[in-house]
Amino acid sequence: MGPPISVVVSRGDVAESRHEVHAVAVRDGRVVEAAGDPGLVAFLRSSAKPVQVLPLARETRELSGEEIAVASASHGGGDEQLRAVRSLLARAQASEEDLECGAQDGSRLNHNCSGKHAAMLLLAELRGWPRGGYRLSDHPVQREIARVVAEVADVRESTLEPAIDGCGVPTYALSLERMAQMFGRLATGAIEGSERVVAAMRGHPDLLLGPVGVDVSVMKAIDGAVAKGGAEALLCVGLADGTGMALKVMDGSWRGLGPATGAFLGLPELRRTPLFNSRGDEIGRISAV
After folding, report:
1. Neighbours of 38 (CB within 10 A)
2. What is the pLDDT of residues 209-247, one digit of tens each?
3. Buried b / exposed e across 199-229, counting CB within 10 Å, b at 16+?
């Protein structure tokens, strides 16, 4: 156990900025490594997506790996990603207009959470629930998801701290230690439906890829890993041996997450990121110390 990871942004030989990153690793229900505060509380944000899709994965066996993967993604709007979103919408007998995530680049389909929202529409369709307002906390879709989040986190549902995520659905605050435990359980298939979700994410990592992609880099670097990033620079990781990890950059800056992840997980290819200017010249570095 030690202090938070310090990520230094250097221009030339001068340290210009620093990011403080808290990280924890949990195995068999106990903290095995920590940098900073394992009890630090943060919102799951998009790191919850592999859990939010679990009710749908449990409901139907007809989903493809691509559909489950894009429902777990913060996607970048690529052709293959949008094709999988449209497939989910077709199964739900829904259209882009039914998505309640708001628009991105002029389209709700392009929103990086459209896969998750399409999956929620499909869950409502399969359960016979009303389609409208599926994003709201009192809708049966969100009540079901809250129950599953509590199940995977091994907490009482009444203790979940809710707020509204950037795409309009509820998000929940948990300690980093609890988030790490969640992903360790997901990675080993200890939760009903998690084997399908994890297999889809591992099998189609490029469908998960968004503008940052630290989670995809971790999955490609570590055999059997599952990882998902969330807004405000959160990353949750589960390893095949049941170890779960969670990292949070305190100032919410994504640029600190890759180097901190490289340092904590022992991935040298992530530990140092070159810093470029607008001309493409390398003028510094972002590195964990």
Report:
1. 20
2. 876 689 999 999 999 999 999 999 999 999 999 999 999
3. ebbbebbebbbbebbbbbbbbebbeebbbbb
Helix %, strand %, coil % of the chain (to 5): 40, 25, 35
Rounded CA separation 134/121 (Å): 7
pLDDT tens figures, 156-183: 999 999 999 999 999 999 999 999 999 9
Strand partners for 172: 162
- 172-198 average pLDDT score: 96
DSSP 3-state of 221 = helix
CA distance 125 to 276: 48
Q: What is the DSSP string of 148-202?
A: HHHHHHTS-GGG-EEEE-TTSSEEEEEEHHHHHHHHHHHHTT-STTHHHHHHHHH
Q: What is the DSSP string of 83-141?
A: HHHHHHHHHTT--GGG--S--BTTBSTTSTTHHHHHHHHHHHHHHT--STTTTSTTSHH
